[in-house]
Amino acid sequence: MLISAIAMLEPVIAQLPDFYIDSGHLVNNIDCGNLIILEFKLHTIGNVDPNLDTKVYKDNILLNIPSFNFPATGSRTGILVFQRLNPGMHNITIYIDTSNSYDESNEDNNIFQFLFNSTASCPQNETNQTQNLVDLFIDNGKLENYCSNNSIIINFNANTVGENVSQVRVKAFKDNLIISWLYNLAFPQSTGFIEKKLNLGFLNPGTHNFTIYTDSDNKYNETDENNNIFQFLFNVENCQNQVENTNKTCKNCGHKTQFPEINDTDVPGRTNLSHYPINQTQISSKKEFSSEFFYFLIILLIMLIIILVILITMYR
What predicted TM-score, i.e. pTM, was given to this entire model? Predict the structure, then answer.
């Protein structure tokens, strides 16, 4: 009986999904002034549409990083970007499915841990000696457009808490590739925020990520050094333009543009005849001409009939 029960459970266990992370590695050298970029693989076994809660810890401190977007099946590359760390051993830990939303075939591989040693000792920037601490961070990310046939534009806020902020160096990544032209970002000089708009260009349908690291050269001594990383995950859809002439509605990814009815007076080069007086004499003369022509046709028809009758009589 026990063997048969186990045999019945095997197909059920085989159908359960499994989520795990592996292949962690640093993609750059840990030198003074460099960011620490950790790359890894997100795996999904099964065919599901996962919506997993994940939590990321750096040296046992919980970071404010959105949940990773696992693939429906197969593998996908994930990335984490950190500021330079003090010399010594450090660990990055990622917990998968923290709310236990999914029953998995293997519940023992939901923790990914990566250990590395930072040996670079960077001199303290002179600007950091200031006694006026500030805090710089980015939040409130949202998309203006999610269609692959239009440029993808991200809106976000650049926030300052404190005073005497000037130029802020940043490093930005789109799908794990550095955006070389984006290296400075204007933050408010004193407490407040500035709304920003960034055009990422055309992107293929699918999941994408945008990451930006604030104060990348560690110019400012901040009250919170753990909120300098802003990561935004988003989906781009394959929208198709369709125009329905009957409804006069242009459909583009759910956004409808109503085309107004055309008025003769609104179209250049087209005149409304009601704006001009009508010559009644011209109209009556046209009517008389039409009547005379009608009578002429009738007389002509009668004459043809008479000629036809005479011809028939002669040849009998």
Answer: 0.50
E strand or H helix at 12, and its extent? helix 2-15
Kindly tell me the burial class for residue 81, based on how many C-beta atoms sit within 10 Å of its own C-beta (0-12, 13-18, 19 or more): buried
Cα dihedral 84, 154, 98, 82, rounded to 10, equals 0
Number of H helices, E strands in the chain: 2, 18
- Tally of CB atoms within 10 A around 181: 7
The answer, yes or no, to whether residue 120 has pLDDT greater than 70, is no
Give how far Cα 186 sits from Cα of 139, 196, 252, Å: 14, 9, 34
- The domains of the chain are located at 1-122, 134-241
Which of 224, 214, 101, 123 shows the shortest CA–CA distance to 168? 214
* Across 83-87, 140-144, 181-185, least confident range: 83-87
CATH of 134-241, one of 2.60.40.10, 3.90.550.10, 1.10.10.60, 2.30.40.10: 2.60.40.10
Q: What is the SS3 assignment for 139?
A: strand
Identify the residue with better confidence: 92 or 266: 92
Encode pLDDT of 45-100 as tens digits.
Answer: 998 878 888 999 988 888 877 778 888 889 988 888 877 677 788 889 999 999 99
Write the DSSP symbol of residue 312: H
- What is the percentage of the chain residues whose pLDDT exceeds 90? 23
d(CA 210, CA 173): 6
pLDDT at residue 288 is higher than 60: no
Tokens 């040693």 belong to residue: 117
DSSP track, 79-137: EEEE----SEEEEEEEEE-TT--S--S-TT--EEEEEEEE---PPPPGGGG-S--BEEE
- Dihedral of CA atoms 290, 295, 296, 297 in degrees, nearest 10, equals 90
Q: Which CATH architecture has domain 1-122?
A: Sandwich (2.60)
Tokens 């457009």, located at residue: 145
pLDDT at 10: 52
